[in-house]
Known about the structure:
The protein has a three-stranded antiparallel β-sheet with strand order 1-2-3, with helices on one face. Strands 4-7 form a two-stranded antiparallel ribbon. Strands 5-6 form a two-stranded antiparallel ribbon. The longest helix is centred in the N-terminal third of the chain and has 35 residues, at 11-45. It has six helices and seven strands; from the N terminus they run ααββββααααβββ. Helix content is 38%, strand content 8%. It is elongated. Helix 3 packs antiparallel against helix 6 (160-168). The protein is mostly helical and 200 residues long. A hairpin with a 3-residue loop joins strand 5 (175-176) and strand 6.
Amino acid sequence: xxxxxxxxxxxxxxxxxxxxxxxxxxxxxxxxxxxxxxxxxxxxxxxxxxxxxxxxxxxxxxxxxxxxxxxxxxxxxxxxxxxxxxxxxxxxxxxxxxxxxxxxxxxxxxxxxxxxxxxxxxxxxxxxxxxxxxxxxxxxxxxxxxxxxxxxxxxxxxxxxxxxxxxxxxxxxxxxxxxxxxxxxxxxxxxxxxxxxxxx
Length: 200
């Protein structure tokens, strides 16, 4: 221990440690700058009307087909939406993940709390409404014009259901001043435009 203290007091050892730290700092900074420049160059080089190769598969609205398993929106405390567009109470969810279509409260493609601009007050209704087969054109238009910032999010979706789950989640488009919703009553949107800005 005593030898280590003596060694650390010598100026040349401190100089070597400082020099190695400086070299590490400079190489890290330069690598990050190179990545930033490369990313910026790629974005500038991309053709403005270049269509993003989306891999979303839309179902054809044939909800009469029997499914052995369903994915659902999972997160709702009382309501859930399955991938066929059915909204049901959590208690009416079948063991296979699908809503029980025979339950009295189960409805398909329900837009109960949604406004004309595609913004809804309840997440599960937003997903269900978004899953309507007639919304496919609207969603394809959105995908082809998606901002670069959303490209990573929306290229990860595989099908219509995943797209609606992602689109209906609140995003930076749903808020103003980074801390309040543009429209607290209709903050889940599948439409092309953000929620309308309500006066404060």
